Amino acid sequence: MDLKARNSNQGATDVDAHARAMSLPIGRVVAALVDVLGATAVSQIGGVGETRAVTQWTDGRTPQRANVLRFAFQLLMTIAVDGERDVARAWFSGSNPHLRDQVPILMLRDQPLTEIAATMMAAARAFAAR
């Protein structure tokens, strides 16, 4: 996946990340997430128990939680730049002090997006500003 570099205007980056996450076909969003996070992590974010469903999503099947997958991609675009795949994986799978030490992947899996989106985006912006 070609991760776009952040620029000094965080607001423009937010807008670009959102626009890209919403405009790409869901299969490409899923493929990009798999490229960076791996199929197991994407299956967790998508709320399924096996990676076979993730492969089906990249082949044209519509995931039930497409909005959560698009939001995860938006987070990914906010925190990562070229060459930072390991950093992105660590951000998604590690406990995060900006999220009350919760793990982003598990939050995306277990909690309603409407309840966590603003807090997660704020955590991603804080990380991107590092």
Protein model, in words:
With 130 residues, this protein is an all-alpha fold. The chain has one domain (10-128). It has 8 helices and no strands. Helix 2 packs across helix 3 (39-45) and helix 5 runs parallel beside helix 8. It starts with 9 loop residues before the first helix and ends with a helix. The relative contact order is 0.16. Residues 4-12 have low confidence and may be disordered.
Quick synopsis:
The protein has eight helices and no strands.
List the helices and strands and how they pair.
Elements: H1 10-23, H2 26-37, H3 39-45, H4 52-58, H5 66-79, H6 85-93, H7 104-110, H8 113-128
Keywords:
130 residues, mainly alpha, 8 helices, 66% helix
